[in-house]
Write a structure and sequence with these properties.
Strand content: 5-15%
Radius of gyration: 24 Å
Distance between the termini: 64 Å
Structural class: alpha/beta
Length: 491
């Protein structure tokens, strides 16, 4: 057990040129002004800073936390504890808000944001960790004193009220009865918005027991998956090198056993491997596993950023005398694709993938295989992006599905007759998967046949459904919830 769990603060470094953890925070912004009293210990302070950045600045948790840990020079147990607190608090924030609101006797929207973020952090420790209650309360109140001084007494009262009831008691009190409102019950018990629970249940054929298993798996911290780049690394040898194990399904996958930053691994620095969920590897490789007649040398990745799938396609292209055109509309993501595919037969084009036929670099009927890894809600990767379940809204869907259809239509224009298009999303939402791919094929104006995607995945994979499309699942396959449809252009 680390010293944080016993409530004993450690010393730490801090970012150069910034106020360190010994400074108080402005009660409106959560930022550090000059002067003030020391707040919480460094791990809790790092977690608070990351949570505040997500909620205040719309930051991505993984990027914000990495910068904060680096700036505060936190490693080992300190970094692990800060990571657990950050991801756990963000993942649970919807249900934590219900509990905080009940304990406070007011809606959490009426609580000052810095105090609200600190209360979420404290409530998570009380309800979801083995941190002693006195340590969680005292450290959180110290933190509130530094970020919202006038709210310290209020925070102390709220947290002590929370300690009076275990998590199971709060859930029994606040969750609607399962037999009356099963979706509402699952949403509260398993920390998901109701609209996402409904979307998962629909994609799982209405099976609420299976939906509950998915929600439970969504709340587990995922292990890191690496992709051993073909021709540059062997998965079995890489697993030995990095203290990992070969993946269950993808021939390129390696599961990391140890913690720490995978970017520090020599294989990553040297371009022999990259971080990529096994599901992403499987759907990209499936496009290349499908048989094709005639020429097979021109491949297109129509939405390539940040470059994981382009890196896998480029590695395989090098051994098959093929070339990859990788399209990415955002310039900074296009640069990431260039870095990810350095030394590979990959040409990166910083342009909109929908410009097929309007740009000489993207002529119609000129590619043999096309991957459309379409922008989506990301509901399939909630394990890895804990804040996204609360950030996304149903109102995001119309614009996203319109873009998805347009990109699929562009891909079907770009591929030659007889060629293949793989439509991929990291979401199981039926509107982003079955509806989009069916409607996109209909609107394309070209002949299209669906190819059964199941035989394109490794033999022995369970739970692939009745075809022709495939939906992967965290609770069935240990991957992100990747959707795959493979279409062959016939005319």
């Amino acid at each position: 057990m680390s010293d944080h769990r016993a409530g004993r603060p450690h010393g730490s470094g801090r970012p150069r040129g910034t106020a360190g953890p010994g400074f108080s925070r402005d009660s409106r912004t959560g930022r550090a002004p000059r002067g003030g009293r020391p707040p919480s210990d460094p791990a809790r302070q790092a977690a608070y800073e990351a949570i505040a950045a997500v909620n205040r600045d719309d930051a991505y948790a993984n990027l914000a936390l990495a910068d904060i840990l680096r700036g505060m020079a936190l490693t080992g147990r300190d970094a692990a504890f800060a990571t657990e607190l950050t991801y756990g608090t963000l993942r649970s924030s919807g249900t934590l808000d219900l509990i905080i609101g009940a304990a406070a006797g007011r809606d959490v929207a009426r609580i000052d944001p810095p105090a609200r973020d600190a209360l979420r952090l404290g409530a998570y420790q009380l309800l979801h960790t083995r941190v002693p209650a006195h340590a969680a309360v005292n450290q959180t109140v110290d933190l509130v004193r530094s970020v919202a001084p006038g709210a310290a007494g209020f925070a102390n009262a709220v947290l002590r009220t929370i300690t009076e009831t275990p998590l199971e008691g709060w859930l029994e009190r606040l969750a609607p009865a399962y037999d009356v409102d099963p979706v509402g019950n699952l949403a509260v018990l398993h920390n998901h918005p109701q609209w996402i629970v409904r979307a998962f249940a629909e994609a799982l054929g209405g099976d609420l027991e299976d939906t509950a298993r998915l929600l439970i798996e969504d709340n587990q911290a995922p292990i890191v998956h690496l992709c051993a780049r073909p021709g540059r690394a062997d998965a079995i040898e890489l697993a030995d090198e990095v203290d990992g194990v070969p993946g269950a399904f993808s021939p390129y996958a390696v599961y990391l056993n140890s913690g720490g930053s995978p970017r520090e691994l020599a294989a990553i620095r040297e371009g022999r491997a990259h971080v990529q969920d096994e599901g992403s590897q499987l759907v990209a490789a499936a496009l290349l596993a499908a048989p094709i007649e005639g020429r097979d040398t021109r491949w297109l990745d129509l939405c390539a950023g940040p470059g994981g799938k382009a890196g896998l396609l480029g590695s395989i292209a090098a051994s098959r005398n093929a070339e990859v055109t990788a399209v990415e509309v955002a310039e900074h993501r296009a640069r990431l694709v260039e870095q990810a595919t350095e030394g590979m037969p990959v040409t990166v084009l910083p342009m909109d993938g929908r410009s097929v036929g309007r740009d000489p670099d993207l002529p119609e009927e000129s590619f043999d295989r096309v991957l459309v890894d379409a922008p989506c809600t990301g509901l399939g990767s909630l394990r890895r992006r804990p804040e996204s379940r609360w950030r996304r809204q149903p109102s995001d869907l119309p614009a996203l599905t319109k873009l998805q259809r347009e990109l699929l239509v562009a891909a079907l224009r770009a591929v030659r007759p007889g060629g293949l298009v793989a439509y991929v999303t990291c979401s199981p939402h039926m509107v982003e998967t079955q509806v989009t791919v069916t409607e996109g094929a209909r609107r394309s104006g070209v002949g299209v046949d669906f190819v059964d995607a199941r035989p394109l995945l490794p033999p022995g994979m369970p739970g692939l459904g009745s075809g022709p499309t495939v939906q992967l699942w965290p609770h069935r396959h240990g991957t992100d919830a990747m959707f795959l449809a493979v279409l062959r252009r016939t005319s």
